[in-house]
Specification:
The complex is a heterodimer of chains A (706) and B (189). Chain A has 706 residues and is an alpha+beta fold. Chain A is built from 22 helices and 22 strands. In chain A, the strands form 5 sheets. In chain A, strands 14-18-19-17-16-15 form a 6-stranded mixed sheet. The longest helix of chain A has 30 residues, at 2-31. The radius of gyration of chain A is 33 Å and the shape is flat. With 189 residues, chain B is of the alpha+beta class. In chain B, the strands form 2 sheets. Chain B has a 5-stranded mixed sheet. A 5-stranded mixed sheet of chain B has the order 3-6-7-5-4. In chain B, strand 6 and strand 7 form a beta hairpin. Classes of the chains: A alpha+beta (706), B alpha+beta (189). The interface between A and B is medium-sized, with 27 and 26 residues.
Chain lengths: 706, 189
Amino acid sequence: MKFDLSRFRDTFFEESSEGLADMEASLLELDAGNVDSELIDTIFRAAHSIKGGAGTFGMTEIGEVTHQLETLLDQLRDGSREVTPELIDLLLRSADCIRGMLTQTQANPDDPPKHFDGMDETLAEISACLWGDAAPKGAPSDASTISQADEPPEEGHDGGGEGASGWNISFRPYQGLLQFGNEPVRIFRELGEFGHLTATADWSQLPALKEIDPEGCYLSWDLTLEGAATREELMTVFEWVEDDCDLTITPITSATGETSEAADEDMSEPIAAIGLHSDGESPRVERRSGPSTDRRSSQKKPEDQGGPSVRARSGSLRVATEKIDSLVNLVGEMVIVQSMLGEIGEDFEMSRIEDLRSGLEQLEQSTRELQESVMQVRMEPIGHAFQPMPRVVHDLSKKLGKDAQLTMSGEMTELDKTVAERISDSLMHLVRNALDHGLEGPDEREAAGKDRMGTVHLAAEHRGGQIVIEVRDDGAGLNPERIRKKAIEHGLLEPGDQSSDAELFDLIFHAGLSTAAQVSDVSGRGVGMDVVRKNIRALGGNIALKSKVGEGTTVTIQLPLTLAIVEGQLIRVGVETYIIPLLSIIESVKLEKSRITWVPQIGPVYHFRGNHIRIIPLAERFGLMGDATEMTDSMLVIVEGEGHVAGLVVDELLAHRQIVVKNLDNNSEEVDGIAGATILGDGTVALILNVGGVLNMQAEPQLASA
Amino acid sequence: MNDLSVTDYLETDALTNGAQWLTFVLDGQEYGVDIQRVQEIKTWTQTTSLPNSPSHIRGVINIRGAIVPIVDLRKRFSLEEIPYTKTTVVLVLTVERDDKERIVGVVVDAVSDVCDANEDQLRPAPDIGVAGDTQFIQGIMTINDQMVIILDVDRLLNTQSDQFADIDVEQVLVGVGVETDEDAPSDVN
């Protein structure tokens, strides 16, 4: 039992973080002045599921905050409260608060914290909003509003229930209640534990015997509970049925000690709002499947095809059923081919060689398809990595006092989940940069004849075997002269330097250079762009920057679609086979001994197309026996890694092919100059070179001797 | 609520009924490892060497798609190297490090037996005064009148840099033999 629940807990956390991401995205859309009931419904649904889950797992605090949030959302939904920027902010903050609480609870599964940072403040804010200012239209009478506002916020949700000596409960199940395994008698028995319970059944809806659906529920009940129970406690009892019934819980106030009609009317309004949303329930249920899904699909991939939210790095993947089905089909085919081949092998004659060949061909075909399908499983739309950006832009533009909007294109472009996760932080940094020192303030923009509202555009597309991501702003652009000045100040360039604009822009990626006039807590400390470039390069990608003064800046990131398969050149050094990723290879030539010069401190240097490049004998570097120490019959592979170019001396160039990358450090230590390993056709292991690492291995002793 | 899970139950069972050890020979001496750590036993296959790695790491091999490093125990223990023969085998062991399970193969001369023995038969290795040198020995057992050195595979195959130095097992064994079992020195030398 315990084990089972913990398994569902993980699902709950994952779904909640997705729900929060949806909520955030919808809130931000609302922010754009776009009041749409579908959006509000999406937000409401997210809050509602989190509340339900939190209740199930006994996370009462989370349940409480979401519950309050729901109350507020309910008012938005029925139109009794206007959407204001302040309200959106409050809702966003509440979502943050819930996220924080979820994270903390998830981190301590055995001993969930009972108090959370910011929880009380958020609750207080929501209560203040609910009861304090601008009471919603059709709200409760003044008297009750005041009494509730006077209460401490934590008790606000009891809706005046503290003073109650008992409760009147109207419980009207829908006909399908019993089909979900709910049992009213059980509920009554539980209620009975709180005090004396009187139940009156209403069988007016009971049809004639022959028309009765034996699984239907036709009875309703009016219950009177005398005893000290809080609303929360009662709600817990009704937790499983609240979506399948009309439920009204009204307190019998101790002050009057009566269950008068007046009190009932007085209280039922606010309670319906705070509590169970009994009235609006059924229409909402219908909306849950219909148009809202359509709407989402027009914006981004529908949920059933998407992966998990980019924030949830839980290591699980949500995969579309079709993708799995195609895998199952392929595996089925392979099993058939395999058994056919097995049969041929059992009793082989030369006459069956044709069967064998065609079988192997089929196997090859299926294997290739299987490989492609499996890679598809790992692909997710880049939209997931874009997901946090609208929030960043919203918060940051407010903080910086700039008007900014974020537009996106190509969110559906698919790339490997691992790549998507690992670029998310870099993208965030670029967007922040664009806002902070790309876009100008509104007045400045107006003076420059631009729209007051600045635009940051995120674009993604497939180009060749790569994905290209652009972060573009229409801000002031980079001033090459300012960079030059800064660079000279920092000693990166000589005074009187004549570098081209492109070279100057490249300096942006150097550590320690920030061109922001002022260092802010957002950006400008000059750490960052170098880290971004390092991260992108670590993924086998590239980053470049273009900018025009007055027109804006574009940062372009090129990334491989997947990290799991690379194009590689097989090479031989002595008896060992290594693989050089094709992306790092500039070209391969036959080594001509006459072109080698020995330069002290640097070693052998090769004269190649007018340039002198360092050459590295791989055999020596890896402590192997090469074919010849004289380098006579060797090949030279010119490679580029981490900004350096050098030639690797190898004994022979073998085939070049697609290889599946395996991690080396799963079982052994990381090895300098080795990025991973793969398994060759004959089952042996070949190591994949990390070109940057190999070049740096050379660089180190050089520095020491210099 | 009964919180005892299936794995708890199995572990308790194993303890009360006694553990099993896989014993193998290395330079005439019997060694043993907890059989639950042994994933499989393979014949020796050519390895792909890892550049610039300690000499006791022969390289890596492919075991059903996993890249597994192979450690030569003779080299690890600074014993005389002999050419690999038909009986040379690779024990594929699971090793725990940093809460992560790893797979490592070790090359030994030959596999001997599977023995039952309670863990309380395990005697601690005598302290020979050289710090750290005996830490890869979990203890010593006498099974069928033969001294078996039980290895702590987690410590033995932990290839972190400070343990890269090959162990001088002769010295350790002499220290061990003198204090526990009079048969041992003849086995060792």
